[in-house]
Amino acid sequence: MVGAVPIGVLTYLLLAGSASDGVFQPAADMGFARYASTAAVLSSGTVALYGPSYDGDEYNPADGTWTETALIPAPRFNARLFGLSSGDALLIGGDTTDARTVRYTPATRSWTWGPSLTAARRFEQAAQLDDGRILVAGGYGPNGSPTTSAEIYDPTTGTFAPAGSMPRPRAGGVAELLLDGRVLVAGGVDASGNGDPCALLYTPSSGTFSSGPCFAAATHGRAFPASARLLDGRVFVSGGQTYYQGSTRLAPDADVYDPHTNRWTQRTASTRFEHTLTVLTDGRVLVVGGVGDWNQPLAQTEVFDPVLDAVRLGPSLTVARYGHTATALPGNRLLVAGGRVSASQWTATSEIYTGDAVMTDGFEQGER
Questions:
Q1: In sequence order, what are the beta bridge partners of 287?
Q2: Spatial distance between the Cα atoms of 77 and 38, rounded to a whole number of angstroms
Q3: Reported pTM
Q4: d(CA 27, CA 261)
Q5: pLDDT tens for residues 41-76?
Q6: Pairing state between β 226-229 and 235-238
Q7: Measuring CA to CA, which residue among 224, 349, 244 is closest to residue 299?
Q8: Looking at residue 215, what DSSP letter applies?
Q9: Taking the C-alpha atoms of 163, 164, 170 and 171 in order, what is their torsion angle to the nearest 10 degrees?
Q10: How far apart, in whole angstroms, are the C-alpha atoms of residue 160 and residue 136?
Q11: How far apart (Å, rounded) are the C-alpha atoms in residues 167 and 185?
């Protein structure tokens, strides 16, 4: 990793894109318009996607087609979908009164009730561990306030069990699995509705949470941001909302967590909310969509280059959108689907980003 990049260089990188940053092209439409959705790569290589409706969609990268799924037992809003080693996927959270999960079986494209969480929750922080278990922490509980409770789903038993408690209640933050097996929990709002500026670290071996470092601008709590773990182990967090001196505004920057130094450092980035961050096969992070300072959907993307440690402008989407899904595909590609194109209109469109370099196939699993 290189050292800090001078401000002048950062400004240049934000203004100048690169010919190697690839292009977005239209892809097939989904069966229905979807917003605030979640997606996961299945073991078969297809992508399961669920939005707040009575069914979902499955995308086949081999032929570029979408297929509607069967009906879901009950719709969920802002739930999280995780692929399981069995080939199925598990839809978690998204409801503060119903603790049941929903299981997706791709062989029949059907949704059935899954095991119940120990507590109903929405806008929880969740991450899949190296052994396939899923940590679910905090979120808004049945009383409408952020909670401190945490639990773990064990695919071998098919059940959830308590996993300790966070030192502080938190909802609307992010959780990223670190290379050493711990989980970084950052951002979100506390019980008072203020942004929490300090992170937590969860250690699976002990089942405990410990206090982590605060964002570089410690007074700025970053709520509902997007995050991605870089190939070198650092965690890039950008956008969302910040809370400072009693006011709320969209976050105009990004933060990078380095587990080796246990510190956050700030980076220049554009203002974005309800956007996505996805690590491409070559290690770059593609910052896609969202709404900006004027509350309009953004078509211009950004690229975080971990080698230069800086952000630059990227290629434009074919459709400006926010609240979409972005899923990495083999060959340095990215599937972007759904979202809002205006305050009153959802979209069923999707598009594919293709980089210009031939890379080793691989997946970066999960929705941001």
A1: 277, 302
A2: 9
A3: 0.91
A4: 42
A5: 999 999 999 999 999 999 999 999 999 999 999 999
A6: antiparallel
A7: 349
A8: P
A9: 20
A10: 9
A11: 12
Sheet arrangement for strand 235-238: 226-229, 235-238, 253-258, 263-268
List strands edge to edge, sheet with 110-116: 80-83, 89-92, 100-105, 110-116
Largest Cα span, the chain: 55
Helices (H), 210-301: none
What number of residues does the chain have?
Answer: 368
Sign of the four-CA dihedral 340, 29, 125, 158: positive
What's the sign of the alpha-carbon dihedral 293, 196, 186, 78? negative
The answer to whether the beta carbons of residues 235 and 225 sit under 8 Å apart is: no
Cβ-contact 106, 47 below 8 angstroms: no
CA gap 57, 211 in Å, rounded: 39
Tokens of 61: 């990268």
pLDDT digits (tens, 9 = 90+) for 142-194: 999 999 999 999 999 999 999 999 999 999 999 999 999 999 999 999 998 88
Q: What are the helix and strand counts (H, E) for the chain? A: 1, 33
What integer is the mean pLDDT of 241-258?
85
Q: Which residue has the tokens 């019980």?
A: 191
